[in-house]
Amino acid sequence: RKEVEQDPGPFNVPEGATVAFNCTYSNSASQSFFWYRQDCRKEPKLLMSVYSSGNEDGRFTAQLNRASQYISLLIRDSKLSDSATYLCVVNRGSSSNTGKLIFGQGTTLQVKP
Amino acid sequence: DGGITQSPKYLFRKEGQNVTLSCEQNLNHDAMYWYRQDPGQGLRLIYYSQIVNDFQKGDIAEGYSVSREKKESFPLTVTSAQKNPTAFYLCASSLSPGQNWLHFGNGTRLTVT
Fold it and tell me: CA of A21 to nearest chain B CA: how many angstroms apart?
């Protein structure tokens, strides 16, 4: 079982749609969770951290479910510019060492006009 | 503007040759990292450095070497011992080893034939 698993997609949605991605992780000791966005052939960029209480940034909402060991990303009112690959990132364990970040393979979103 | 610079953007080498990828940052970050990304896979950690003159192996260090003689620089050498060197290589940094927010360079695409 992979340490971090995502559905690779692609998710094809029309503009204005709401779309949600899930990501599961295997290490129950993980404490830090993130969503990164990666455009085609570019470097990943931090989209948002995921907090235990859930957090929202504009059209984006991230949630954490520790009991089921998954995090989610909800995008409302999708824009063409949201088309990208969304990477789920989890730290490997209780250590604060950043070298232990694990990246999922990413979920590709295509927003169509 | 502060950031991370990787060079070159594209690199072509013949099998059996060593090649060094450059990574420079002017963010005054202590920690630096090298990741490799292959199609359909998440980023995998090759090496990381928490402080000058110190570095640690990541998950896939075999066939690679690094140095950290200066805070700003963390070059990666892909040696002839690396069996599948063709990939997208990403350098990243964080303010401190305990901070999980990674800043990425724009990557180097290495093709070995």
Answer: 16
- Residues of A within 8 A of B41 (CB-CB) are 105
Contact criterion met (CB < 8 Å) for A97 and B45: no
* B98 closest CB neighbour out of A4, A43, A96: A96
**Token digits of residue B62:** 């075999």
- Judged by CB atoms closer than 8 Å, whether chains meet at A105 and B40 is answered as yes
The answer to whether A15 and A80 have CB atoms below 8 angstroms apart is yes
Shortest alpha-carbon distance between residue B86 and chain A (Å) = 15
Query: Tokens standing for B85?
Result: 């060197």
Residue reference for tokens 């984006």: A60
| pLDDT tens-digit readout, A33-89 | 999 999 998 999 999 999 888 899 999 999 999 999 999 999 999 999 999 999 999
Determine the pLDDT at residue B1.
64
Check B33 against A45: CB less than 8 A apart: no
Collapsed DSSP state (helix, strand, coil) of residue B97: coil
Amino acid at B7: S
pLDDT of chain B along its 113 residues, tens only? 679 999 999 999 999 999 999 999 999 999 999 999 998 888 999 999 999 999 999 999 999 999 999 999 999 999 998 999 999 999 999 988 777 789 999 999 999 99
